[in-house]
Amino acid sequence: MDSKEINIKEPKGKLGVLLPGMGAVATTFVAGVMAVKKGIAKPVGSVTQIGTIRLGKRTENRSPLIKDFIALAGLEDLVFGGWDIFEDNCYQAAKKAGVLDRYMLEQIKPELEKVKPWTAVFDKKYVKKLDGTHIKSGNTKMELVDQIRQDIQNFKKENNLDRMAMVWCGSTEIYMDPSEDIFNDLDAFEKAIRENHPSIAPSMLYAYAAIAEGVPYANGAPNLSVDFPALVEFAKKKGVPIMGKDFKTGQTLMKTILAPGLKARYLGLNGWFSTNILGNRDGEVLDDPESFKSKEVSKLGVLEHILQPTVYPDLYGDMYHKVRINYYPPRGDNKEGWDNIDIFGWLGYPMQIKIDFLCRDSILAAPIVLDLIIFMDLAARSGMKGIQEWLSFYFKSPQAAEGLYPEHDIFIQLMKLKNTLRYLKGEELITHLGLEYYD
Description:
Blueprint: E1 14-20, H1 24-37, H2 47-50, H3 66-69, E2 78-84, H4 90-97, H5 102-107, H6 109-113, E3 118-119, H7 141-158, E4 161-168, H8 186-194, H9 202-212, E5 217-219, H10 229-238, E6 241-244, H11 251-264, E7 268-278, H12 281-285, H13 289-307, H14 313-316, E8 320-327, E9 334-344, E10 350-360, H15 361-381, E11 386-387, H16 410-424
Parallel strand pairs: 1-2, 1-4, 2-3, 4-5, 5-6, 6-11, 7-8
Antiparallel strand pairs: 7-9, 9-10
Helix pairs in contact: 1-4, 1-15, 7-9, 8-10, 9-10, 11-13
């Protein structure tokens, strides 16, 4: 299709933001949007709010803000709702999370207190380190899906919403084997929901409910959630954008920045050892080996896909990659990641790189949630459906179409994102191919 023929519907009316899991990440995002709207702070880290996009040749000097180039929902259009296993309103939850200082929270307290979570779908066997009482009950998992759908419908009606989008901000569930038959076919998957199949985790119920209601869905955790053929089929059938998985924030963000540089200079890698300490709810959940396995699978694939050891066996064929996450309560949301990287250069001579990244987990994740909500809405208004690979930029383990490997190089991901925006608006794609030598 000619990009100039793409009809992008205008972002009229209110955009509902649906957040399963209203802990540190979700409350930091909601509070941040409210603070930005009040002029208290700047939306640092958000592509949709402060990012620019080059158009045409460099000599044209056209680099508008992305939000001025393409019609995006504004912060004033966002209305927040969500689910949690604890009853705390958004102000109480944000205060307990301890990410944002009290001075900032007090300035937006009235707005935050209005955001109260609905009862959540929760089963301790999928997240063994958490307990909550603010939960739904039902005889079957399909009954729970119907309750989620009712919440979505009520939210839309009560707030007179024009459109909605959902981002999973809940905890990491135990690892699920994606090769099970129930995940390969929509009919089999729906039958499994009705029959309370043990491999159907809560995040899958939210994803199914969102797609059934025509709501775009993004998965911010390493859960299987929507990353299997049955729900990809359902999303295409319903014309719904989906994407995931696992927000790319701390240590993996550093890997997707540094590894492409090593590969670009053809420097070899003998080993990359990564360890983390964090003390928030995510750290507590990941203290369970079964939940950690979901995270480990998400984090380990990054280097292999970027460095392509089968293509460059002399440089990366024997690399050793290890990831560790340690729960350390005193740190709270302030995560620390240590990386020891053993590289080699000309004639095989060894060198080392050491990284000590003292980061704030939810501060890095919050702008990702904002961008995903706004870009998902754009995708839906543009008639896009199924896996949105152009938003891989935001994920540790991005979904890709069947038969394709996921792209992890953050610079290629950003180029793909911006070229998609250019394509939607009928602008020339930027290839960085210079032909001035022939002028």
